[in-house]
């Protein structure tokens, strides 16, 4: 039906006052936004006074030249104007000019609230810099991502004004962008409102217009993603792997960091040491500080390489195999989302292209470490968790194989990456509360892997001569923060508190001060909890001593969270924009003092440097190019997957409507993974790899419709999904 000019004006809801307000706000936001996007500093002294501000910050504002600056300003202005126009239409409760054709489905207030929430939260992730362990001046390029730490003496009014203006600029820009993103989500959710017939008619008209070729490809994609089968999952996985194949060559033979190096040396020599004290452990071949199952896998491929006559080929085969398995696991994930959860083929095809082409995926899987080795099994486990939730919500029979698969894979993942135990246990306890239909089953699935894992460890550890891990690994944060209270506020400790503290911490206050680098004038910053947990924890402390210590920590932290957070500054790093998924470019590095150069001796390493292979000399600059390439660079940042994507998925669950907030239950394991980042003794980007490789499952959550998911697998995906089919 033709749409006349009057209807077009009504649908645009043109009100001059609203557009003038949007233009004024966009103009202010453009000025602040350009400042936020370009301002930086290389030296902490830039905030001493106005002269230092002019010399240390102002040059960054025009660093890209007048042309790039003008284009940036126009881009920000346009984005903010369009975003605030959309926001204004929501504010007045109208999205499409009529009550019968409301584009927001009646959820404008929720969209408005989540636009502001996303803008304010994401602005924090861009404004707060990553933790820096140095106060020294950095290069202009380095400071753009991670400026140096600023001592308290330089935190002047100019310092707070600088960060206040940046936050305001980012908040306005991201609120407008969030409004546009949520409007796009609402439009996408409404694409199937007319039903499958409309999509079929659109396709047919396109074919009649001479687009038969496009129609054939659409049908093939619908069939590939919309019908769950082993062949389709293998095909999708093969597409991903082909795109990853160059990285299997450019990272040759592999990228092996300190944890894995220790495991290889243990397997080669049959003699373990305590990674925290560096003391050899008599009568022990392995240490449970690193999962023993991973050690066996790494040792087996290392021996295979020696048997083949090339140790490098054996370890490359390990990295290659885990890359292949991960690609196939992602193929299953995407085929499941389309074939069972009924997401549209466009969504699945886009997710396939994203994970196939963004450089981090193929490159990271060539790193030999427990986080990459467990990845294929963890992804399949997350598919089973999703299927468990779907079946329980739909009232469908679970079947024994689903429960067995959940338990077996949970046990396997827990033996390969310890944090998996806590995440899966927490997930199914929450499901037992939320999903009333299967509470006993959920509790059984939560407890069974823990019990089986304990039995396996009780048998395997003595048989393999595995030394038990230290208790300090699980309480690193309480050790660090309570020690900070002892250094900064010793007057808060009573005589009994001192006794409780001394039974667990064996270092003097002076040593703790040195390890904490608590003195802001010493030019150093806290790097992690390793020093205190490794050097100061009393290994003779009993379980009762530790429980009393944890009670003391909880009381002190609740009374003064600022001091507690100041003692663990690395905890913010996964949540702020800065860290890139890059494990470094070398073949093997770490534990040289313990004889690690026996592993692939053709590649040498020292405390400060490590050899790279000839292919890595090509791969490293190529990967660094992608790290700095506009557009691609953002997709390689940790923060995108730990905050931006999950927050957007949550927002869509509330904004789209149709009781999609109930889909938040699918996010349970991912939110627990994010929460687990707050108990880690240091920051490494590999701790968030599961979020990165699971991004398709996270972003898919808002688009799952209960009635469609309840229908399960079927042929095609023309209906039952909010993602557009054509």
UniProtKB/TrEMBL annotation:
Q: Which UniProt keywords apply?
A: Membrane, Transmembrane, Transmembrane helix
Which Pfam families does this UniProt record tie to the protein? DUF6020
Taxonomic superkingdom? Bacteria
Q: Which residues cross the membrane?
A: 21-41, 68-90, 111-128, 160-182, 228-247, 313-336, 343-361, 373-389, 396-413, 419-436, 443-464, 640-657, 664-681, 687-704
> Under which name does UniProt file this protein?
Uncharacterized protein
